[in-house]
């Protein structure tokens, strides 16, 4: 792992890091590009974290009617992992839009990542983790030494396009309802204040001029 990851995990300074390297507590090798890569096992051992971190699967769909697709994602990831001789330690899943990160399964996964418990997360497509903020999630996971493995290289299926459409429509609907609610509250306040009737018509969507 890189030095910034070591510093974050051990909560030490660069001076202390080099002391660990010189004493042999942390093995290090230099890459052709000049960067130093520190031994994962040594770092986790010093941090009191078990080296056998978990390999997990994360799967997600947007609606209940896509439950079969959710199961397919899980099975495909498990088959992919097992084919590499790796065991699956845990499975996280959600039935919720990928537009939001506020998902029960995702938050449980995130907490495990931030506790340095996860070695790798296997997903079918990158938008299973997040639609609009995948790069942010990827960076965060990387900072905690967690690798994201995407088992499918393309994401062109009709079902995924339909899911994206439904996610967008759900977001638009949610935004519209919030705007409608705000207009109702504003109208109520103006009524209580006995303001100009023409302004009330405007809030109600009527088109009379306010000259």
TrEMBL record:
<feature type="active site" description="O-(5'-phospho-DNA)-serine intermediate">
    <location>
        <position position="62"/>
    </location>
</feature>
<dbReference type="InterPro" id="IPR006119">
    <property type="entry name" value="Resolv_N"/>
</dbReference>
<dbReference type="GO" id="GO:0000150">
    <property type="term" value="F:DNA strand exchange activity"/>
</dbReference>
<dbReference type="InterPro" id="IPR036162">
    <property type="entry name" value="Resolvase-like_N_sf"/>
</dbReference>
<dbReference type="GO" id="GO:0015074">
    <property type="term" value="P:DNA integration"/>
</dbReference>
<dbReference type="InterPro" id="IPR051491">
    <property type="entry name" value="Recombinase/Transposase-rel"/>
</dbReference>
<dbReference type="InterPro" id="IPR006118">
    <property type="entry name" value="Recombinase_CS"/>
</dbReference>
<dbReference type="InterPro" id="IPR009061">
    <property type="entry name" value="DNA-bd_dom_put_sf"/>
</dbReference>
<feature type="domain" description="Resolvase/invertase-type recombinase catalytic">
    <location>
        <begin position="54"/>
        <end position="201"/>
    </location>
</feature>
<dbReference type="InterPro" id="IPR041718">
    <property type="entry name" value="IS607_transposase-like"/>
</dbReference>
<keyword id="KW-0238">DNA-binding</keyword>
<dbReference type="GO" id="GO:0003677">
    <property type="term" value="F:DNA binding"/>
</dbReference>
<dbReference type="Pfam" id="PF00239">
    <property type="entry name" value="Resolvase"/>
</dbReference>
<protein>
    <submittedName>
        <fullName>ORF4</fullName>
    </submittedName>
</protein>
<keyword id="KW-0614">Plasmid</keyword>
<keyword id="KW-0229">DNA integration</keyword>
<keyword id="KW-0233">DNA recombination</keyword>
<dbReference type="InterPro" id="IPR048046">
    <property type="entry name" value="Transpos_IS607"/>
</dbReference>
